[in-house]
Amino acid sequence: MSGSNAPLYAKRSLRVINAESDDGSTEYKRQVHKLSTSRLHTLATQMSYRLDEGHGRCTYHIGVEDDGCHSVLDYSAVSESAWVLESIARSLNAVVLERKMIQNEIEMSDDGKLKLVDNINDVLVVEEPPVLSSGIDGFNCEDEKEEKSCGDDEEASKKKTVRKLSAADEAYTRCELTIQRVETHLLDPSPLSLSSLSRGSSFADGVNGAVEASTLSNLERLKLSSPASTTCRKEESKVAGETNDTQHTVNTVEETLSTRNIRVAVVGNVDAGKSTMIGTLTTSFLDDGRGSSRTSIMKHRHEIESGRTSTSSSHLLGFRHSGEPIAGRDKIRANKMKTEDEIARESYRIVTLMDLAGHEKYLKTTIHGVSSGFADYAIVLVNSRHPPTHMTQHHLNLCCSFGIPIIVVFTKIDGCPEHALATSKNELAKLLKSPEIGRRPFAIKTEQDIITSMGKLHTLAPTIDISCVTGEGLDLLRKMLFSLPKRRRHEKKVDRPFEFLVEDIFLNVPGVGSVVSGFVNAGELNVGANCNVYVGPTNDGTFLKTVAKSAHVARINTSHITAGQSACLAFSLNKELRKKLRRGMVVVQESPTATKEFDAEICVLKGEGTTIRRSYQAYVHILNVRQSAFARDIQIVNNNALGLPPSHNAKEDTEGIVLRPGSRAKVRFEFAQRPEYIRPGMRMLFRDGRVRGVGIVTGIPQ
C-alpha cells in the first residue's frame, strides 16, 4: 500500500453494517457516476438480478464498501449516485419506495482520526422523497388512518429534510434505497434514458427531466400493493369522489401472460413473407427487401440460408395500455433484441405470434402447430404479386376446421402492379366465399374499419395491405392486433384439475436437469420440493411420478403457473427416466390413465378421393398428440336430422359402411404405436397427406 493511499484506506475501515453477500437482494455501492453505456447496462443487469433474488424488491446501500465499511463520501456524491440508481430502476419498471439518508455516524476524535460515534442516538436518519417519483401523492404514507392529504406530508418532509441534512464536505453520508419492481404498463420505462446518463448529464438536469416526465397526470394512476399506499389512495378517492372504475390497477406479468395474451397463428404460402412480417412487427425495424427481418426470429441455419421456415416458433409482440407497440430491439444497442421477460414486464397486452411453415413439405408441422397452438385468431398471408395457391386453400380450410377466425394480409404491395393485386384479391374472395369457408372479405383502410369488424370476425375476413419494406399498412395491422378481443377464456378452466401439454423437451439443461416446455391447458400448479406430478404416458402406457421443482414463464422464474400460460417445468428425473420423455406427453397432478382406443364423432371434409371405411388408417392430431390410428368401428349419424342432402349420407356396401365427403359418423379409433392421454371433449383432426376430417373425442372405452 502506497503512502498516499494509506490515509484513505484508514478512513474506509469503519464498519457500519455487515459485509455484502454475493447472493440475496442487497447490493453495496461506493459511488455511481460518470458511467459508460456498457457499465450502465451492467448495473441494470445486476439490479435485475437483485430484484429477482428478493422476489421483486431489493435494497441498495450507497456510500458503503463491500466489506460493510463507510465510504466517507459527502451528501452531494451520495445523492447523485442515488439519482443514477433510481433512473436505472425506472428502466427496469421499478420504483424507489424508500430513500434514507444517514449522517453523523462518523466523528473526528481528539487525535485527528475518524471514528464511529459513541452515542447511537446522535446518528441522523432522514427519509427523503424519491427524486423520480415526487409527483405521486401518498407514495410514502405510513399512517393508514390519516385523513389529510399525503402531499402535505411530503411537502413538510421536504422542508424538514432541507433543514436537518448537511451538505458540508465533512458531513459523511450514506444512503439506503428500497427498490420495488412494479409490473405495470403505466410506468414510463425511463424518465431519463440510460444513453443520456452515459453522455454525462448533470444531476440537476436529471432531476428536472424526471419531474417533467413524472407528472401527476402520468403517475397518479400507479398503485402499489403496499397497505399504506393503498389506504392513502382510498382516502384520496373518497375525498375527490372518484370511483374505482376510473382507476387502473397494477397488472402483473402473470395476468398479462394469461388473461391478456392473444395467441395468433401466422400461416400462408412459402413466399408470402410470414417470418419477415413477424420479424418486422417484433423488432420495429423495416426489412431491407432481402430478408433481414426474418433472420432475427429463425431458429436454424438452413432456414436462414433457404428462407423457408421448417419449425414452429412463438414470438411476443407487446403493447402498452395506449396501444403503443413495445420495440423489440434495444434503443441503445440496435443489434440487441429484447428478451421475452423484458417485453412481458413492459406490456399491458401481449400478442403471441406463432410462425408456422408454409411449404407443402412441412404441412404436417403446420397442422400440428394449429392443432396444439390454442390460437385465438389466424393471420393468412397472401403474396399480392401472385394469386392464392392450393396451399392457401389448405390453410384456410385448416383454420376453419378448428373454428379459428381469419385475418387476411396481402404482403409485398410495394412495387406490385395494380392489376396483379386486383387479381389476387378477386381470387381470394372466391376462396373465402366458398361453402367450406363461408367468409366475406372486408377491406381495412382506416381505424374505423377496425372497430366495425370487431365482433363480426366469424362472418367477416378482414383484409389488410402491408409492405414490410416501406412500412405501409403496418400501423393498421398493429392496431388490429391490439384491438382483438380474447376469444379463449382459459381463466375459466382454473378450477379444473391441472393439465400441462408437453410440446418440447430438453433432456439435460446445465445446472437444472430435464426441462419440458408446453401449454397449461387447465388448472394451476405451485411448483417446489413438495410438488408431486405425473408425466406420461411412456411407450408402455405408464406415468412417471416426479417433482416439479421450478417453472419459468416467458423466461421469468415463478413458483405458480395457471391455465392459459406457455411455461417451462423442470423435473427431478435421473438419466434413465429422462430418456423416456417425449413430445406429446401430459403433466398432471392426479394419477391418470392412458388409452389406446377412443371414440370420436367426426365429419369428413369435402375433397377428391376421400373414402373412409373400416380399417382406414390416418394420422390423428388431438391437441399436442399426433400418431397414426386405425378406424376399428364406424356407426352412422343421422344426417337427415341435420338437414343435410341425401348425397351426404354414409353408404353401406359389401365391405361395410363407407363415409363420403360431408358425412358424419361415430368412429372408434385405435392408436397404432402406443397409448396416449385422451379425455372426452378434445378436438381432433385426421389426415392422410392432406386434412380429411375433423371431430371431437366423445368417450374412452373401459
Structural class: alpha+beta
Low-confidence stretches: 1-7, 133-152, 154-163, 184-191, 201-250, 640-649
User: How much helicity do the residues have?
Assistant: 25-40%
Please give the order of strands in the largest beta sheet.
9-10-8-11-12-14-13
Count of alpha/pi helices: 18
Beta content? 25-35%
In whole angstroms, how far apart are the ends? 83 Å
Structure, explained:
The chain has 702 residues and is α+β, with helices and mostly antiparallel strands. The chain is 25% helix and 27% strand. The chain has a seven-stranded mixed β-sheet with strand order 9-10-8-11-12-14-13, sandwiched between helices. A six-stranded antiparallel β-barrel has the order 15-16-22-19-18-23. The longest helix is centred in the first third of the chain and has 17 residues, at 37-53. The termini are far apart. Mean pLDDT is 78; it is low at 1-7, 133-152, 154-163, 184-191, 201-250 and 640-649.
Summarize the structure.
By secondary structure, this protein is of the alpha+beta class. 25% of the residues lie in helices and 27% in strands.
Q: What tags apply to this protein structure?
A:
six-stranded antiparallel barrel, single chain, elongated
Mind sketching the topology for me?
Blueprint: H1 6-11, E1 26-29, H2 37-53, E2 57-62, H3 75-91, E3 94-103, E4 106-108, E5 114-116, E6 124-128, H4 150-164, E7 173-181, H5 194-198, H6 203-213, H7 216-219, H8 227-240, H9 253-258, E8 261-268, H10 274-283, H11 301-306, E9 313-319, H12 340-346, E10 349-355, H13 363-372, E11 377-383, H14 390-401, E12 406-411, H15 418-432, E13 440-443, H16 447-453, E14 460-465, H17 474-483, E15 499-509, E16 513-522, E17 524-526, E18 532-536, E19 544-553, E20 556-558, E21 560-562, E22 566-571, H18 575-578, E23 586-588, E24 597-604, E25 617-622, E26 625-636, E27 651-653, E28 656-658, E29 664-671, E30 683-687, E31 691-699
Parallel strand pairs: 1-2, 8-10, 8-11, 11-12, 12-14, 13-14
Antiparallel strand pairs: 2-7, 3-6, 3-7, 4-5, 9-10, 15-16, 15-23, 16-22, 17-21, 18-19, 18-23, 19-20, 19-22, 24-29, 24-31, 25-26, 25-30, 26-29, 27-28, 30-31
